[in-house]
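Data deposition worksheet. Section B asks for the primary sequence of the deposited chain exactly as it was used as input, without tags or linkers unless they were present during the calculation. Section C holds the resulting structure in C-alpha cell form. Section D is free text for depositor observations; keep each observation to a single sentence. Incomplete worksheets are returned to the depositor.
Section A, Depositor: J.P.
Section B:
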Amino acid sequence: MTTLTTPAPAPTPTPARTAVRPVRRAPSLGRIAAWAVMAVIVLVTLLPFYWILRTALSTNAGLAADPTNPLPVHPTTGGFERALGLQSTKEAIAQGGAGGGLDFWRYLLNSVVVSTLVTGCQIFFSAMAAYAFARLRWRGRDTVFGLFLAGLMVPAIFTLLPNFVLIKQLGLVDNLLGIALPTMFMTPFAVFFLRQFFMNIPREVEEAALLDGAGKIRVFFRVLLPMASTPVITLAILTYITAWNDYFWPLMVSYSDSSRVLTVALAIFRAQTPQTGVDWSGLMAATLIAALPMLVLFGCFARRIVSSVGFTGIK
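Section C:
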C-alpha cells in the first residue's frame, strides 16, 4: 500500500519593506522671510555687545584714527588692565587712560553685597505677602491687594525724594544699607509674580498638611515654598540683575568709595579723563567686566526663567 503525500506549498515571498521617508517640503517664502527677520533681530541685538568688545580691545589712539573700522584697531588688552587696576598711572596716561585708578574689586564687592541683600530680603518678604494674598482668607484681602498692585502704576522717579529724606533721617546716607533699603522688603511685581503661582497650587495639598497637624507657618515653609522653588529662583535672578544694574538711586546716596557700587564707579571712571578725551577703551572694558556676571547668570538660567514666566501666565 502506497501513501500519497502532498508536497508542502512553497512559501510565498514577502514583499520587501520599503522605508517610508518623510517628504521634505521646500521652505515656503513666508518661512524664509521669518528666518531672515529673526536673523536681523539677533544681529541688531548682539551688535552693541560686539561693539563694546571691539572698543575694549582697541587703543584710544586707534579709535580716534579709525572710528568706523568694525575690527579692533591696534588690538591690545590695555583697557582691561586699566579697568582692573593692573597698570601704573604713567602707563595708563601713556595709553590715553585716566591718571586716577579704579578700585574695581572694592566696587565689585559693594555691588555683590547690595544685590545679595536686596534679593534675599525681597524674596523672603514678598513670598510671605504673596502667600497671605493667595491662600489666607481675611476681610478686605482683594481690596488691599488691588491697592498694593496699584503701586506698579507709580513711576519710580516719584518715590526718589521721599526715600532720600527717609534714608537721610535714618542716618544711612553713604551706606550700603541705605542703598538697599528702599527695595529690600518687597515690590508689587514680586508679590504679584509669586501670588500667581501660589494660587495655582491645589488646596488639597494644603488641607492635607493641616490635617496632619501642621500650622499655617509650617505649611508655608515646609510645603508651599519648596513647591514654588522654580518661580522663586526666577524672581531671584531677575531681582539680582535689577539691583545690580541700578544706577540713579546709588548715585544719590553714595558719596565715597566705601559705598560706591560698580554702576556709579563706571560713571566716575568716565569723568576721570585726561585732556586728550574720554578713555573709551578702558571704559568699555570695565563695562564689559561689570556686565559679564549678569550675562553668565542669565545664560545659565534662561530656560528656567522662560518656563517659569510662561507657567505663571505673566507675559
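Section D:
The radius of gyration is 30 Å.
The CA atoms of residues 174 and 255 lie 6 Å apart.
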